[in-house]
Amino acid sequence: MKDTCIFCKIIREEIPTKKIYENENFLSIPDANPRVEGHSLVISKKHFENILDMPTSLGQELIDCIKKTSLKLMDEKKAKGFNVINNNFKVAGQIVKHVHFHIIPRKKDDGEIKFINKS
Ligand code: 5GP
Ligand code: ZN
C-alpha cells in the first residue's frame, strides 16, 4: 500500500508538490482539486489509513500543523475563518486511504461548500 499510496509518494518527494508547512510528522500541501481558493491538506508523514490508526501521541504535532497551516492560509488568502474536515472510511467520503485533514479557508458570502464525496 505504501508503495502505491499517492500521499506516501508526495512525502517521498516522488511527486513534486508545494509545501505549506511541515514538522517532524506532518506536512501540509495544496489540494490538487481545490473546492475553494486555498483548500489544503494536512497529511501524516507516516502511512496510517485513518485517524483510528494514528497514535494519539502525534496529536500535538497534528494540531501544530493544522494551526500553522490555517493561519498562513488565512493570511495569504485574506480569509476570515476556516473549516477542518477529516473523512474516515469510504462511507464517510474518504477516497485517499492515508490519513489527512482538509483545511478550507472561508470568506463572508462564499456560499455552501460540498466536499464530502458519497458514492
Ligand atoms: P478525501 O475524500 O479522501 O477526504 O479527500 C482526498 C483529497 O485528496 C481530495 O480533495 C483530492 O482532491 C486530493 N488529492 C487526491 N490526489 C491528490 C494528489 O495527488 N495531490 C494532492 N495535492 N491532492 C490530491
Ligand atoms: Zn500513504
SSE order and pairing:
Blueprint: H1 6-11, E1 21-22, E2 26-30, E3 40-44, H2 59-77, E4 81-85, E5 100-106
Antiparallel strand pairs: 1-2, 2-3, 3-5, 4-5
Bound molecules: guanosine-5'-monophosphate and zinc ion (ZN).
Zinc ion is lined by residues 2, 5, 7-8, 47, 98.
Based on the model shown, name its key terms.
about 120 residues, five-stranded antiparallel sheet, 2 helices, binds guanosine-5'-monophosphate
Task: Give a written overview of the molecule.
With 119 residues, the chain is α+β, with helices and mostly antiparallel strands. The protein has a single domain (6-106), classed as HIT family, subunit A (2-Layer Sandwich). The chain is 21% helix and 20% strand. It has 2 helices and 5 strands; from the N terminus they run H-E-E-E-H-E-E. A hairpin with a 3-residue loop joins strand 1 (21-22) and strand 2 (26-30). The protein is globular. Bound molecules: guanosine-5'-monophosphate and zinc ion (ZN). Residues 6, 17, 29-33, 41, 87, 93-96, 117 line the site of guanosine-5'-monophosphate.
